[in-house]
Automatic annotation (TrEMBL):
Source organism: Metapseudomonas lalkuanensis
Keywords, comma-separated and alphabetical: Hydrolase
Alphabetical list of InterPro entries matching this protein: 6-phosphogluconolactonase_DevB (IPR005900), 6PGL (IPR039104), Glc/Gal-6P_isomerase (IPR006148), Glucosamine6P_isomerase_CS (IPR018321), NagB/RpiA_transferase-like (IPR037171)
General function of this protein: Hydrolysis of 6-phosphogluconolactone to 6-phosphogluconate.
Domain of life (superkingdom): Bacteria
Class of the enzyme per the UniProt entry, highest EC level: hydrolase
Name of the coding gene: pgl
UniProt keyword Cell membrane, yes or no: no
Protein name: 6-phosphogluconolactonase
Record-stated family: Belongs to the glucosamine/galactosamine-6-phosphate isomerase family. 6-phosphogluconolactonase subfamily.
Length: 237
């Protein structure tokens, strides 16, 4: 399928939106529909979201969607090893922009734990994630280096985190930018989502997608692991 001048593999669909506001609104509707369907089917829904700066508008649109938030569990694809009060905390971002109003009744399962070191924090997150349940919707972001979640090219543990046989739900990662210490969900857990959406903005990230589609090496560009699986890309300039 060709969209944004990219040749997407058949299992990948692409939606081109006119602006960041349109992308946020469209993504919120898509996610809310999938959560409602999960609640109708089994009485509960699980949503995993990404952090960074770009999801803010999406979070604010999503929290306004009408659905039974008390039946929704929300977690993170990745986290920075900083306390929730820190400006770089992904949990802080979700608490500030998504878990407000009706959406405040959702259950939130965070990845950050106060621990003496990153390895121990990742182990505690791995244990806590046993309570997550099957993921209905995963919303990924992507960096210009081709990282997604906190699966960073060149990080120790990346090979293990990208392995389909990885038994850890969460592993410690090192990012090239501060805060360097990260926690990431691993590929088997991320790839188990019923619906995976990738939200990307701007020409630079489109060029990253084109580069990712042109090669094979997942360790060089971890987003490739998701371009081989069913994926819905939402892009805007
Ligand atoms: O560090 C991170 O980067 C990616 C991309 O963030 P963005 O602000 O450029 O969209 C994000 O998906 C990930 O969750 C975050 O921790």
């Amino acid at each position: 399928m060709a969209i944004f001048n990219l040749d997407l593999p058949t299992q990948v669909t692409g939606l081109s939106l006119g602006s960041p506001e349109q992308l946020a609104g469209e993504l919120a509707i898509t996610v809310a529909n999938a959560l409602r369907a999960a609640i109708d089917a089994r009485g509960a829904a699980v949503l995993v979201v990404s952090g960074g700066r770009s999801p803010i508008a999406f979070f604010e649109r999503l929290r306004g969607q009408t659905l039974d938030w008390s039946k929704v569990t929300i977690s993170l694809a990745d986290e920075r090893f900083v306390p929730v009060s820190h400006a770089d905390s992904n949990e802080g971002l979700v608490r500030h922009h998504l878990l407000k109003g009706e959406a405040a009744s959702a259950r939130f399962l965070g990845l950050y734990h106060s621990a003496p070191n990153l390895d121990e924090a990742a182990r505690l997150a791995h244990v806590a994630l046993a309570e997550l349940g099957a993921i209905d919707v995963l919303v990924l972001g992507m960096g210009e280096d081709g990282h997604t979640a906190s699966l960073f090219p060149g990080s120790p543990n990346l090979e293990q985190a990208l392995s389909t046989g990885c038994e850890r739900r969460c592993l410690p990662m090192q990012a090239p930018s501060v805060p360097r210490q990260r926690l990431t969900l691993t590929l088997p857990l991320l790839a188990s989502a019923q619906l995976t959406l990738l939200a990307v903005q701007g020409q630079a990230k489109l060029a990253t997608l084109a580069a990712a589609l042109a090669g094979e090496d997942e360790a060089a560009m971890p987003i490739r692991a998701f371009l081989r699986r069913p994926l819905e890309i939402h892009w805007c300039p």
